[in-house]
Amino acid sequence: MNETIPTQEHIDTCVFSRDKLAKNKHEYRHKIYSEILLSGGATCDEIEVALNMKHQTASCFISNLKDDELLYDTGDRRMTRYGRKAIVWKVCVPFSQESSGQMVFSK
Question: Residue 32: helix, strand or coil by DSSP?
Fold first, then answer.
């Protein structure tokens, strides 16, 4: 089996991408969580379209929210733009709201 050894340039770009996403982590989580909450459930593909987001970003943060037990797999499946079945995600528990009406994102 041929394994590719990452070059320093590859490692640097991965670190840059990770750090860039980390800076906006709460923003991405909040946008995805809010979209799923307001839509009553959504697939990753639907999130990508609604938020004009890359698949890798949307799926990463959906997994992150699922791991934090804020989203769950409904067991329902819907077709993506590419004709594949996709998980329909729903919100487990709404976050609290501040008096300003803003959703508080605690994690």
Answer: helix
- In a domain? residue 98: no
Q: How far apart are CA 4 and CA 103, in angstroms?
A: 44
Query: The whole model's pTM is what?
Result: 0.70
Structural domain boundaries enclosing 55: 23-91
Distance (Å, whole) CA 18 – CA 5: 19
Q: Say how far apart CA 40 and CA 70 lie, in whole Å.
A: 14
First-residue to last-residue Cα distance in the chain: 41
Is residue 70 one of the residues assigned to a domain?
Answer: yes
Per-residue pLDDT of the chain (107 residues; tens, 9 = 90+): 455 555 555 555 555 666 666 777 889 999 999 999 999 999 999 999 999 999 989 998 999 899 889 999 999 999 999 999 999 999 996 555 555 555 554 43
Q: Total structural domains in the chain?
A: 1
